[in-house]
Amino acid sequence: MAGSTLEIKDLHVSVEGNEILKGVNLTIKGGEFHVIMGPNGTGKSTLSSAIMGHPSYEVTKGSIHLDGEDVLEMEVDERARAGLFLAMQYPSEISGVTTSDFLRSSMNAVRGEGNEIPLMKFIKQMDKKLDALEIDKNMAQRYLNEGFSGGEKKRNEILQMSLLEPKIAILDEIDSGLDIDALKIVSDAINDMRSENFSTLIITHYQRLLNYIKPDVVHVMMQGRIVKTGGPELAKRLEEEGYEWLKEELGIQDETVGEQA
Amino acid sequence: MTVDTKLTYTNEYIEQFSQDRNEPEWMKTLRLEALEQVEHLDMPEPDKTKIVRWNFTRFHHDFVSGENISSLDHLPEEIKDFFDQDNLPENLLIQRNHSIAHAALSKELKEKGVIFTDIFTAMNEHSELVEKYYMKDGVAVDEHRLTALHAALMNGGIFVYVPKNVQIEEPLQAVFWQEKPGLAYFNHVIVVAEQNSSLNYVENYISNSEEETVANIVTEVFANDNAKISFGAVDNFAENTTVYTNRRGIAKRDATINWAIGQMNDGNTIFENITELVGDNSLSHANTVTVGRGKLIQNITAKTIHWGKNSEGYILQHGVMKDSASNVFNGIGKIENGASGSNAEQTSRVLMLSEKARGDANPILLIEEDDVMAGHAASVGKVDPMQMYYLMSRGITRKEAERLIIHGFLEPVVAELPLESVKKQLKQVIERKIN
Prior knowledge:
The complex is a heterodimer of chains A (about 260) and B (about 425).
Chain A: E1 6-15, E2 18-28, E3 33-37, H1 44-52, E4 57-66, E5 69-70, H2 76-82, E6 84-87, H3 99-111, H4 119-132, H5 150-164, E7 168-172, H6 180-192, E8 199-203, E9 217-222, E10 225-230, H7 232-241, H8 244-250
Parallel strand pairs in A: 3-8, 3-9, 6-7, 7-8
Antiparallel strand pairs in A: 1-2, 1-4, 4-5, 9-10
Helix pairs in contact in A: 5-6
Chain B: H1 11-20, H2 25-38, H3 77-80, E1 91-96, E2 99-104, H4 107-111, E3 115-118, H5 119-125, H6 127-133, H7 145-153, E4 156-162, E5 172-178, E6 187-193, E7 198-207, E8 213-223, E9 228-236, E10 241-251, E11 256-263, E12 269-277, E13 283-292, E14 297-306, E15 312-321, E16 326-335, E17 343-352, E18 358-367, E19 373-382, H8 385-392, H9 398-414, H10 420-434
Parallel strand pairs in B: 1-5, 4-6, 5-7, 6-8, 7-9, 8-10, 9-11, 10-12, 11-13, 12-14, 13-15, 14-16, 15-17, 16-18, 17-19
Antiparallel strand pairs in B: 1-2, 3-4
Helix pairs in contact in B: 1-2, 2-7, 5-6, 8-9, 9-10
Family (chain B): Belongs to the iron-sulfur cluster assembly SufBD family.
InterPro entries (chain B): Fe-S_cluster_assembly_SufBD, SUF_FeS_clus_asmbl_SufBD_core, SUF_FeS_clus_asmbl_SufBD_sf, SUF_FeS_clus_asmbl_SufD, SufBD_N
Protein name (chain B): Fe-S cluster assembly protein SufD
């Protein structure tokens, strides 16, 4: 079978007792590029955090399976080793740990014991990706995300994705805070990953990223559910006309959910 | 069991001890005067730590020689890990029990007049020089009972002297190995850097004594005008050793004293690190890391006292506590009247790895002058769950993620150690202790 399948069924998620996701259904197959759009506060980031296993998000109902394996039974690190990746909107800063040491640790963790990457090979691969993402090589020796600009943090997330080669990458607002040049570089790196063994779920509320990355499926999220699914033409229409027509069509007054609004 | 702080040492014992060491008269007198004071002086009172039940009296004080180590190719197993076999230091003293088992100083440094020898030899060969610095302007005999006790019972240590204008690049390393169980360590270290000189010095205390005993260590570091001293240390006393360590620095005009201390004892510890910034434009970074495990109780005080104008003192303390270990950090910046333009900053952080571990961080500023800068930061907390989540989301296991965060937390101080092998060794000790 080519690629992996992520299957989300009737997913309900709460944060501090507040239900944010109210029944999300979504299936991503190998090789597919999905985009979830939607205004702020509709539950997009909650979905990505819940898939990865963020400690503050509680799944109260529903299921997530990766190639038939129950993701919700897995620890965060197991999910990563199973092939999931989340480029975070607000990555943590880890003082005293160099980016390069961290990258090597995570690559070796994902590759598994006995299959560790030799140091020289690692450096070569890292350097190649640093060049491709036009990241200053000094960054590898800086402490992880510490003092990084917003743009550097985003590129660092994509760098990690490129090196870890996940089966399914969730990119949570990877485009926010990037200028147009950086956006192109990041998009190129994502497009380079395209193969039948790689799929992605891109979360954004700007259409502009889709000028560089062609999605196969476009979803719109409102009130903690996926309310509309279509092809690239859906994103186009949203860019041109905004969300009002959709809200009208669906009879939605307030698209937000929980306290995020 | 009653808590007995009364000593059984007599004048005769001290006189005999001094005579056996062939000490100069001034030393014998200093010892006897100190012994007199022991009874009248109070024990130190480290802020927020009760030490009344600690063992300060049960130990074997007698001078015990250690076997010679003729070749570094055949280092004893117990201390092997503390050296980098491919990169052995050229200037090295190994004190085994109380005697010197190995001594090496490069010809070049000898010719330049550098002294790097044990304290007893130094007292014989350079009596006046040692007398000038020994418990005079640095640590006073009568600060409290433990300093007086130290002066009376000193039974080991070294003397390091760098003459005027001599700059030493390659580090000087001293290893103090308490090999015999129950042996008391009353070690005295003096480091003197004369005008315009510079020096990197690193010391290690190694012990694996399962018997209860005491370490009472006084170290006095003098940086004269425009001298620069980088002082690194890794202390590694075993569980049943009660440790009192006093490291004092005196920095004169334009002088620098930088401390990088790994406090890795398993026995209850009081560590006091005071730097007196006497001269104008003097500078000190006092960095300490510690990892506590088991039932360790520890009190670590770093203090900079600013007398000179434009003097700068930076204190950085990072500690990790696991099991039921508890640690108090006191970071004190004291700016005296007249020390205008000075800057005193203290940062103290404790990371707790278990429910029972305890941490306390107290930055204190005492300022008697208007025209100064000062700042402090403190935190006591657990490993940040968001950092764990981030690392684990890249496939790193919980255990490994925690390990990375802890090493990272201690890294700012580890990185400052002046000798690569000691840095590596400290990392290994940290690794052993957090696992």
